[in-house]
Amino acid sequence: MGGKRSGPARSSSSSMWLAQNPSKRWTELFVLIYTPFWLILCLGIVVPLRLYEDFKELEYFILAFVSVAPSFLIPLVFVCKADKGIPLKDRYWVKASLWIVIFSYVGNYFWTHYFFTVLGAAYTFPSWRMNNVPHTTFLLAHCCFLLYHVVSNLTLRRLRNSISHLPTKLRWLLEGAWILALAYFIAFLETFAISKFPYYEFVDRDAMYKVGSLFYAIYFIVSFPMFLRIEEKPGDKWDLPRVAVDALGACMLVTILLDLWRLYLGPIIQVPETKQCLQSSLPWFPENA
Description:
Layout: H1 2-15, H2 22-46, H3 57-77, H4 92-117, E1 121-123, E2 129-130, E3 133-134, H5 135-162, H6 168-193, E4 200-202, H7 205-228, H8 240-264
Antiparallel strand pairs: 1-4, 2-3
């Protein structure tokens, strides 16, 4: 009898973390299972063994491509039960991937320049570049952001289920506090995790850990609650245009917040004259690159 009681209890507990949508639930679990592959490859092999010392543009690109490719190929080839017979455009992993592709692309193409001008960061490894940003980071950002947003989904869902009986204003306060804490923790953890890689440099690493992590956290303060909304409510189906518009809306809000920081708080370190961006323009414009 004890076993019979514990079964439903375990099921109830897991359902507080996992999505009701079976396609979404499978995708979130897949991302968690897939993540150790690229983490071990990059941070468990390449960085500690200093293999990057022999890397040129091609090797860096291959590393990033090999890291990100399974996130698209595995769901495409090994179709989960919930997605069988469903058009590709209607599968949750496609929608989630599109949202993250847009968010990470904008983050690299535009927001990386805030890291240069506000946080004093620099990429010094050899890499093919777009808008002075390495192609490698465009690809690896997709891996990272997939993980971050799945972790956010799981924890926010668990929190919402746990506090659903509380007054509305208190629920908003607790959820907002959790989003802020998780966003800052993830931003700090990423910066710390890649600190052993010498070719991602900061003028003042301590300032980057403490204050720069808050700047970086702005990405996720906006994106975490917005990403969770995708097909979270039963029966609320999203098409790809809606996903794209939602991601672009998140990107615009992040851009506004980052630029307000640039204008009114300024750099967290003393940035050389040649790298300072003018008040009348934006940091990714050619005169500021």
